[in-house]
């Protein structure tokens, strides 16, 4: 079963890049500003500074949102070609619009952020895809579960995978699993990540073919296997 | 010749690499050697439960303060456990005074989720009167000396403090519904499982360092923490991204590597549990001597 996802790139007019990304019942808007000048105190002499702001759909950001910011920041910094912009700042704003559950929110935020960075044309060393998986008591791995499926499952995991070698960049697990079960989930997540990378690719092709940069008809000429 | 120390300051990455190239680390350990662990429970007399953990130079004190509060409407028969990690500037120059930083927040959140999602504690046991009174356990995890590997040490101190915890018995006057606490702390909390974490710092895709010190963490990309139950089941795997410049994805690990981490963590498990048991027995026997 394919992952239910959609995106609208260049969604915001004032940002350098933005993406309105929907994943299942979760939707987020991610916007990127920069590389621009930032706080002097946050400047690095050898790389750019990435600032992540995560806004929940209701209420003030709490400690949980700060944690999400940390996770996203650590992952994105991994792929950013940050050495190209010393002393600069890249601002990444993520606005939650609605969410199914916290795992999917993290997944959607990360994928949305990567798409917004692509839209902004920020140089990166690779791409990331986040995938939520859950392992049910019956031994079935569900990719992008609904809140109900999550509740009924034994364990839930978020994997952040990298496009070049399908290596694990980050992993967050809740609920116990045996080693064999864990491996099964990881393998399924790698399969699902391929689908997300394919989605990135087709969306970028769409975006640039409408600008006349790439002829959408000759998509096969640019065929490239992300994994 | 300039002293070795200035090399470390001027070119930290190069300095560190020269050790790693020799299958070693600046503190003399090889990649797969952990630092000695020492655990002491009952180190704070005023707290309901407490423990001190030392992992090499890393020193963590965990104190559990129990307060009676109202249970939430969602779960009227459950108490609360609130782990809170504090990293004050005195433990390392990398931490600043003021609101909690990223590391403290993410560690607190990690511990909170770990307790909640794995049925480690019987939350129902913390309820005194359904819908009225429940215990809220504030677990303050204080870092006195930070030398890396916060996850392992804070989790160990939290588990040890919760094992040491004894709550006062609550007496309820049937007529006035007034509460009174007995002076004797007797009620123990049932800890169903004892999760233990093993952390690796990822230097690159080939080299991972077990039990990283602060110097190792500074030179490495991400960290992988494998939390295992006593049975060896994977309770949680937490892998953070790294913060490095110019090298292509240094801290990403292949799925095969993840299995290696799990098996290394499993091999360390019995030693850590043994240390914890010894500390608890030592405390219990000391208490018997002076009633």
Automatic annotation (TrEMBL), chain A:
Keywords attached to this entry: Exonuclease, Exosome, Hydrolase, Nuclease, Nucleus, rRNA processing
Q: Show where the Exoribonuclease phosphorolytic domain sits.
A: 6-122
- Cellular localisation: Nucleus
An individual GO BP term: nuclear mRNA surveillance
Q: Which GO terms describe its cellular component?
A: cytoplasmic exosome (RNase complex); nuclear exosome (RNase complex); nucleolus
Which Pfam family name is an example for this entry?
A: RNase_PH
What GO MF annotations does this protein's record show? Answer: exonuclease activity; RNA binding
Q: Which domain of life is it from?
A: Eukaryota
Q: Which InterPro entries match?
A: ExoRNase_PH_dom1, ExoRNase_PH_dom2_sf, PNPase/RNase_PH_dom_sf, Ribosomal_Su5_D2-typ_SF, RNase_PH
Q: Residue span of the signal peptide, if any?
A: none
Which family does the similarity line name? Belongs to the RNase PH family.
Name this protein carries in UniProt: Exosome complex exonuclease RRP46 homolog
Q: What organism is listed for this UniProt entry?
A: Hyalella azteca
Recall the taxonomic lineage recorded for the source organism: Eukaryota, Metazoa, Ecdysozoa, Arthropoda, Crustacea
UniProtKB/TrEMBL annotation, chain B:
- Gene3D superfamilies with a match to the protein in the record: GHMP Kinase, N-terminal domain
Q: Subcellular location, in the record's words?
A: Cytoplasm; Nucleus, Nucleolus
Q: Which UniProt keywords apply?
A: Cytoplasm, Exosome, Nucleus, RNA-binding, rRNA processing
Q: Which GO terms describe its cellular component?
A: cytoplasmic exosome (RNase complex); nuclear exosome (RNase complex); nucleolus
A single GO molecular function term of this UniProt record: mRNA 3'-UTR AU-rich region binding
Q: Name one GO biological process term.
A: nuclear mRNA surveillance
Q: What is its main location?
A: cytoplasm
Extract the InterPro entries matched here: ExoRNase_PH_dom1, ExoRNase_PH_dom2, ExoRNase_PH_dom2_sf, Exosome_comp_Rrp42_subfam, PNPase/RNase_PH_dom_sf, Ribosomal_Su5_D2-typ_SF
Q: Which residues form the Exoribonuclease phosphorolytic domain?
A: 34-168, 195-244
Which PANTHER family does the UniProt record give?
EXOSOME COMPLEX COMPONENT RRP43, EXOSOME COMPLEX EXONUCLEASE RIBOSOMAL RNA PROCESSING PROTEIN
Q: Which family does it belong to?
A: Belongs to the RNase PH family.
What is the official name of this protein in its record?
A: Ribosomal RNA-processing protein 43
Write down the species: Hyalella azteca
Q: Which gene encodes it?
A: LOC108682244
């Amino acid at each position: 079963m394919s992952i239910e996802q959609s995106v609208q790139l260049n969604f915001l007019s004032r940002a350098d890049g933005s993406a309105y990304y929907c994943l299942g019942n979760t939707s987020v808007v991610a916007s990127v500003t920069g590389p621009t000048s930032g706080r002097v105190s946050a400047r690095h002499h050898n790389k750019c500074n990435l600032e992540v702001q995560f806004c929940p759909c209701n209420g003030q950001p709490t400690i949980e949102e700060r944690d999400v910011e940390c996770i996203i920041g650590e992952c994105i910094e991994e792929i950013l070609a940050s050495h190209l912009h010393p002393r600069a700042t890249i601002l990444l704003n993520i606005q939650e619009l609605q969410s199914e559950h916290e795992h999917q929110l993290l997944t959607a935020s990360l994928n949305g952020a990567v798409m917004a960075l692509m839209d902004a044309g920020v140089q990166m060393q690779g791409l990331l895809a986040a995938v939520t998986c859950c392992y049910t008591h019956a031994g079935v791995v569900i990719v992008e579960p609904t809140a109900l499926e999550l509740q009924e499952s034994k364990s839930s995991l978020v994997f952040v995978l990298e496009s070049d070698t399908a290596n694990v960049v980050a992993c967050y697990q809740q609920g116990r699993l045996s080693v064999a079960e864990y491996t099964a989930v990881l393998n399924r997540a790698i399969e699902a990540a391929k689908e997300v990378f394919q989605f990135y690719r087709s969306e970028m092709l769409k975006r640039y073919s409408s600008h006349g940069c790439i002829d959408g008809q000759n998509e096969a000429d640019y065929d490239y296997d992300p994994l | 010749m300039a002293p070795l120390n200035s090399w470390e300051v001027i070119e930290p990455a190069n300095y560190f690499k020269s050790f790693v190239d020799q299958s070693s680390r600046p503190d003399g350990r090889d990649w797969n050697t952990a630092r000695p662990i020492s655990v002491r429970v009952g180190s704070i007399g005023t707290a309901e439960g407490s423990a001190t953990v030392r992992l090499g130079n890393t020193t963590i004190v965990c104190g559990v303060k129990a307060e009676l509060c109202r249970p939430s409407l969602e779960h009227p028969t459950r108490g609360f456990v609130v782990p809170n990690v504090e990293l004050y500037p005195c433990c390392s120059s990398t931490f600043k005074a003021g609101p909690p930083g990223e590391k403290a927040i993410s560690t607190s959140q990690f511990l909170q989720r770990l307790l909640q999602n794995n049925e480690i504690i019987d939350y129902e046991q913390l309820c005194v009167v359904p819908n009225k009174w429940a215990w809220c356990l504030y677990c303050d995890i204080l870092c006195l000396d930070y030398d890396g590997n916060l996850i392992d040490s804070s989790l160990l101190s939290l588990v040890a403090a919760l094992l040491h915890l004894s709550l006062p018995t609550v007496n309820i006057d049937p007529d006035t519904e007034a509460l009174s606490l007995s002076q004797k702390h007797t009620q123990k909390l049932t800890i169903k499982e004892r999760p233990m974490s093993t952390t690796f710092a990822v230097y690159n895709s080939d080299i991972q360092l077990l039990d990283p010190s602060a110097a190792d963490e500074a030179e490495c990309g991400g960290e992988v923490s494998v939390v295992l139950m006593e049975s060896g089941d994977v309770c949680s795997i937490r892998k953070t991204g790294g913060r490095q410049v110019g090298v292509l994805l240094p801290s990403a690990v292949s799925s095969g590597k993840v299995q290696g981490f799990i098996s290394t963590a499993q091999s360390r498990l019995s030693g850590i549990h043994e240390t914890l048991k010894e500390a608890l027995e030592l405390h219990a026997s000391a208490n018997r001597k002076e009633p």
